[in-house]
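Long-time lurker. I teach an intro course on protein structure, and each term I like to show students one example going from raw sequence to a predicted 3D structure in token notation. This year I'd like something fresh instead of my usual example. Would anyone be willing to generate the tokens for the chain below so I can use it in lecture? Attribution to the forum is fine with me.
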Amino acid sequence: MTKPLKVAVVGAGAFGIQHLDAISSLGEAEVVSLVGRDLRKTREVAGRYGIPQASVELDDVLAQPEIEAVILCTPTPLHAGQAIACMQAGKHVQVEIPLADSLDDAETVELWQQRTGLIAMCGHTRRFNAGHQWLRERILTGEFSLRQLDVQTHFLRRFNLNALGQPRSWTDHLLWHHAAHTVDLFQYQTGEEVIAANALQGPIHPTLGIALDMSIQLKSRGGALCTLSLSFNNDGPFGSTFRYIGDGLTYIARYDELTNGTGESLELDLPEPVLGGVARQDHEFFTAIREGREPNASVASVLPCYRVLHKLARQLG
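-- Reply from a regular --
Happy to contribute to a lecture. Here you go:
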């Protein structure tokens, strides 16, 4: 039996818990340390998952030679710096989406991956959701030709709250976080670079300092189109819906579920169909470490997304 990897999870909030659940379901790694902002809450979460160590300092993790890999589920502004610190300490790293909130920082993370040769991966979960995976196989074999990807990413978020409705210390961003999912997925599914990208945004919220509404248009080199609507003003349902329009065929993907264009559920003939996207993502991370290979959603492979985001950010000012 393969010895489980010793892993630290940094971030005990909504996404940290998603990764803890995923790792528990896989049985491929042992979480030996949990880092969070509030020590009392971090100890409580660590106790629920049988994690022996709880801390509020990333440095406590990086100083432990037995820890082989770190999963970062921390505020967006910390991602790049913490990912670099992990690699400088000799740890493989998976950082939750987005890799960074600037192209310069994203490229610096990739530079450190090249210098160290460690596994560095970003949590672009849509690459791993079952419905999107099923469609990718059909795109690659020519069974489905993607002509347009129409996406709605809608939430009701007027305050700094996480996915569990708990207060947080940083502000989420429609472009650098939520649009990153779709921009990367569009390039991943088409296998082509984006040659045209346009963005519009609504008024800046006086307290949050970000636009709560945004519209993005993309065109791939082969002529496929993507239209993305993003909002923090939407009163349900919440989340992202992806409508794949092809030559007479339409599919609708929502996280791990897939239907045809009229809403009829499809049975997906994928290996390990019971695994959710985050579990598939973590499995890829652990497998890439063991096999010493570049993972799907490696830092290098997602950089084209951040180049498009950079271009859109310059349009928005």
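Some talking points for your students: The chain is about 35% helix and 25% strand. Residues 284 and 296 are 7 Å apart (CA to CA).
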